[in-house]
Design goal:
Its EC number is 3.5.4.26, 1.1.1.193. This is Riboflavin biosynthesis protein RibD. One of its GO terms (molecular function) is 5-amino-6-(5-phosphoribosylamino)uracil reductase activity. By secondary structure, the chain is an alpha/beta fold. It folds into 2 domains: about 140 residues, Cytidine Deaminase, domain 2 (3-Layer(aba) Sandwich), CATH 3.40.140; about 200 residues, Dihydrofolate Reductase, subunit A. It is about 25% helix and about 25% strand. The strands form 3 sheets. An 8-stranded mixed β-sheet has the order 10-9-8-11-6-12-15-14, sandwiched between helices. Strands 2-1-3-4-5 form a 5-stranded mixed β-sheet, sandwiched between helices. Helix 8 links the parallel strand 8 and strand 9. Helix 3 runs parallel beside helix 4.
């Protein structure tokens, strides 16, 4: 039986609102990306709005400002439950009440304890409120933000490149290039979607990475993640990760801990929501055994080494029955002229622990 909770016009408007939320140039954090569409009684669009980043008008306020007096009596279709919080901007729930909005349809409930309560404020003022329209699509728009708010730590993506026999470097230590050119460009695209690049001290000492976003079509990319290294040993301040001339605007931090949970807590306190783990096998094993990997991205290259550094260090697994078996969510073949294709596997571990 068809769900009559929402009208066809509201369904179309929510799709539009999601598109507004993800318009080019809208930052991935630290605020959620939100879109809003105001509809009249006939289902026609009165105004549209979207949030453009921290300190700017929220999507509802943006749409209300564009609508002016025409907002009265409309239905507001919003990708996230209107906030009930006064920060750098006022509470959206009260703004909708003051504008005379008749009905509010939202996709995702606001998980932020500081901002929740918008539904109650609206209903207390006599506004009809219905939630859940395109809920899953709205959560996907703010995947890392939602996870970080709900679990009190950043979402962690572990990325690695490997040969067919599971090697990330040859016996002599060489690792350039295990992955192909197309895979490397894809890696930089994924880096740009995170707000922290994290490696261990050994990676900094041996590989001396810059950990910046490069090699993508719209270079220089406007967003550079925080470049973080974790570990207790002192490092040469001349390493590339600490060189402001190579940073392309990225900041650097040395987290003086070997504990993955403590590192994530410090990054969360800095307002970071999505960690891209690109360290070596030891760091990867530490996060995996702690249950702190939420997504795995593996680039598999069609080559065999037979010896060399494994992609991940000892996980304490001694029998096949105890093997970690992540769920594959995507398989993509990456081609570049003049070289064999790489395969990107995106997976969800079964051992992830939210808190």
């Amino acid at each position: 039986m068809a769900d009559t909770t929402f009208t066809d016009a509201e369904r179309r408007a929510m799709s539009t609102a999601l598109a507004l939320a993800t318009m080019p140039g809208v930052p991935l954090g630290p605020n959620p990306r939100v879109g809003c569409v105001l509809l009249d009684d006939d289902g026609a669009i009165v105004a549209e709005g979207h949030h453009r980043g921290a300190g700017t008008a929220h999507a509802e306020a943006d749409a209300l400002a564009r609508a002016g007096d025409q907002a009265r009596g409309t239905t507001a279709v919003v990708t996230l439950e209107p906030c009930n919080h006064t920060g750098r901007t006022g509470p959206c729930a009260q703004a909708l009440v003051d504008a005379g909005v008749r009905r509010v349809v939202f996709a995702q409930p606001d998980p932020n304890p500081l901002a929740t309560g918008g539904t109650e404020t609206l209903r207390a003022a006599g506004v009809e409120v219905v939630g859940g329209l395109l809920h899953d699509e709205a959560r996907a728009v703010n995947r890392a933000w939602t996870f970080a708010v709900e679990h009190g730590r950043p979402f962690v993506t572990w990325k690695f490149a490997t040969t067919l026999d599971g090697r990330s470097a040859a016996a002599d230590g060489t690792s350039r290039w295990v992955s192909g050119a197309a895979a490397r460009r894809d890696t930089h695209r994924l880096r740009a979607e995170c707000d922290v690049m994290l490696v261990g001290t050994n990676t900094v000492e041996v590989d001396d990475p810059a950990l910046t976003v490069r090699d993508i079509d719209d270079e220089p990319f406007p967003h550079q993640p925080l470049r973080a290294v974790m570990g207790e040993r002192d490092l040469d301040p001349g390493r590339r990760i600490f060189d402001p001339a190579l940073s392309l605007g990225a900041e650097s931090v040395h987290l003086r801990t070997r504990d993955p949970r403590a590192a994530l807590a410090e990054l969360f306190a800095r307002g970071r929501q999505h960690v891209f783990l690109e360290g070596g096998p030891t760091l990867a094993a530490a996060f995996l055994t702690a249950g702190l990997v939420d997504e795995v991205v593996a680039y598999v290259s069609p080559m065999l080494l037979g010896a060399g550094q494994a992609a991940v260090a000892d996980l304490g697994i001694t029998t096949i029955a105890d093997a970690l078996r992540p769920t594959v969510t995507d398989v993509t073949v990456l081609d570049a002229p003049g070289e064999p294709p790489n395969v990107r596997l995106t997976m969800t571990p079964t051992t992830s622990k939210g808190a």
